[in-house]
TrEMBL record:
The lineage of its organism: Bacteria, Bacillati, Actinomycetota, Actinomycetes, Streptosporangiales. NCBIfam families: purD. The keyword Nucleotide-binding applies. Keywords: ATP-binding, Ligase, Nucleotide-binding, Purine biosynthesis. Belongs to the GARS family. Its EC number is 6.3.4.13. GO terms for molecular function: ligase activity. This is Phosphoribosylamine--glycine ligase.
Length: 417
């Protein structure tokens, strides 16, 4: 199977790694890719939000499956263009991708499907925003209605801050605050059937203890020793399958990965948000533990051949990933700084490094090229061993001004010790 993977971040390096381990994948191409994916397949310069350009490259490479990593190409209609050209695509059409592209649309779908979520109001003016904030009270939750790369949400006790965010975004969804821990669950769908991956937890805030601004994610781990028994079955029954069924009823079948961001509240499971692609950095730990070959799974979804009886196989143990972020991330990350120590990090047993925001510098060495620069993954028999290996490998890497959280999976590891 000849596969073209779209994207350039840590999620895409994790996908490329998993695809490269599938014996059925005979050729792997990445566009644009990064220096990490270049070691696994061929990188191609490409504007991945240009549907025509994507189709042309896929044809030239005689691609049998296109896997879309980030959300922007989906919202741009890349999935639609590929299917019209007869090229199998793992990733929803533009209409179905609105489940991420518009928070208001997602709420509408959830209401129609009976999916449990936070009560909310869609607001387009300062007056509407004030009324909604006062109706729910603090903590205030204000979400940009459109795409914001995981950083369009403000949760604050400060009403003025909430109003400023609403004004800056324009159209927002203001909703009740959901208590309880958050969980990410991905489900692969062919438009009719769906199969769950392992639940994971990520860490959104920039600094230890959940302090600092929201980011795209500073680390993740799986399994979740504290998660209730039967959680995955409950989410499939009450969230994923009703949503897939409702989108199919609307004649916009959902083909790809449906990412359910969940809160385990005192009143039960509630959907915080949907995304139309794999989460980053949760993908890095979930795919590490997947034993079922990934290429065949994604192809089955793309061609409508996912058997309802599909059961995935998982490697035992645990995986932890820690994000190494550039100086001043997430505000205005520094770029172009030299990265050292990758060979030393690779010598740590059962640990490896995924590239997220890297580039080849003018002198041929590796330099930072984004806010989240590297994802360091550690694996082990349990969370303690996995996180020890991740942090040991991370400690061997050098990047001027970089920062990372030191508490990824610490509490969960202590609970399961």
């Amino acid at each position: 199977m000849r596969v073209l993977l779209l994207g350039s971040g840590g999620r895409e390096h994790a996908l490329a790694r998993a695809l490269s381990l599938d014996p059925a994948v005979t050729a792997l191409h990445c566009a644009p890719g990064n220096p990490g994916t270049a070691a696994l397949g061929d990188n191609h310069a490409l504007n991945i939000t240009d549907p025509t350009a994507v189709v042309e490259l896929a044809r030239r490479l005689r691609t049998e499956l296109v896997v879309v990593g980030p959300e922007a190409p989906l919202i741009a209609g890349v999935g639609d263009a590929l299917r019209e050209a007869g090229i199998p695509c793992f990733g929803p059409d533009r209409a179905a991708a609105r489940i991420e592209g518009s928070k208001a649309f997602a709420k509408e779908v959830m209401a129609a499907a009976g999916v449990p979520t936070a009560a909310s109001h869609v607001c387009e003016s300062a007056h509407q925003a004030e009324s909604a904030l006062d109706a729910f009270g603090p903590p205030y939750v204000v979400k940009d209605d459109g795409l914001a790369a995981g950083k369009g949400v403000v949760v604050t006790e400060d009403r003025d801050e909430a109003l400023r965010h609403a004004a800056a975004c324009g159209r927002v969804v203001i909703e009740e605050y959901l208590d309880g821990p958050e969980v990410s669950l991905f489900a692969l769908s062919d438009g009719q059937h769906a199969v769950p991956l392992l639940p994971a937890q990520d860490f959104k805030r920039a600094y230890d203890g959940g302090e600092g601004p929201n980011t795209g994610g500073m680390g993740a781990y799986t399994p979740l020793p504290w998660a209730p028994t039967g959680l995955v079955d409950e989410v499939m029954d009450t969230v994923v399958l009703p949503t897939v069924t409702e989108l199919r009823r609307r004649e916009t079948p959902y083909v790809g990965v449906l990412y359910a961001g969940l809160a385990l509240t005192s009143k039960g499971v509630r959907v915080v948000e949907f995304n139309a692609r794999f989460g980053d950095p949760e993908t890095q730990v979930v795919l590490d533990r997947l034993a079922t070959p990934l290429g065949g799974l994604l192809q089955a979804c793309a061609i409508g051949g996912l058997a309802p009886s599909t059961r995935l196989e998982w490697r035992p143990g645990a995986a932890v990933t820690v994000v190494l972020a550039a100086e001043n991330y997430p505000a205005s990350p520094a770029k172009g700084d030299v990265i050292t120590g990758l060979k030393e990090a690779a010598q740590v047993p059962d640990a490896y490094v995924l590239h997220a925001g890297t580039a080849v510098g003018p002198e041929g060495g590796l330099v930072s090229a984004g806010g989240r620069v590297l994802n360091v993954v550690g694996t082990g028999a349990d969370l303690t061993q996995a996180r020890d290996r991740a942090y040991e490998a991370l400690g061997r890497i050098g990047l001027r001004g970089s920062h990372h959280r030191t508490d990824i999976a610490r509490q969960a590891a202590a609970q399961s010790a």
